Fold this protein.
Amino acid sequence: MDVFVVADWLSSRLDDPGVRVVDVRDEWEYEGIGHLPGATNVPFDRFRSAAADASGMLPALSDWRTLLSTAGVEADDHLVAYDDTHGVFAARFLVTASLYGHPLDRLHLLNGDYSAWARERPTTAERPNVDVTAYETAPRPDEQSPLVDYETVHAAVDAGDARILDTREPEEYATTHLPGAVQLNWRDLVDEETRGLLARDRIEDVLEECGVTRDRRVVLYCNTARRISHTYLVLRDLGYDDVAFYEGSLTEWEARGGPVTGGQRDDDGEPEP
């Protein structure tokens, strides 16, 4: 089953009780602008760690289970997530679900966001009736998890045998980045007109230009693991098997004194997360 699903696929399954559509936008957008019929709202900030020293990191497992139970999600549901930013926030939701054990073949990102859907398909401001569930899954064991820590990434930087991808904006990369990292703005894989992914052959061309191959490990980072979530799902959808997800990303890397290349950050500005 594909990670990315098109609007026609989802439209034909909106009444399927085994398909749960999740809108990760802010509540005011969900209620005030509208949402897909039947979609439940799980705002982005609710599935990120609330700890001050863990910005952007995974929420506590108990908090995650409560959140999905309240949203009416069952452990065997097909989850289709969307946002209105080309899927980058929804991707973080799906990566979180995968790390906490939701079946990988039941996690999907809508290819095209809310605005793309609303151009041709009905939306609603009506909240669905949701029955609270007892959602419970077991986190993926370490040997099956794409998560890598600071030490693993540092070793990869030193060895130079992995393709390290910085998925932030070009100006952020120019300011500071991990030694040896190649810049691949996550938006370079998005079609601004359709608001979904580029055609597969065009994505493969972009990846080839960045030296990404299926026989070489890929290590992804950004600032706080949001943007790498989208790139991670794209690579997984294309069949790249050895993709490492550095959740701590540049925020942790710099906090721990990891080496960087480029200039220094401006003291008066925070980088995009």
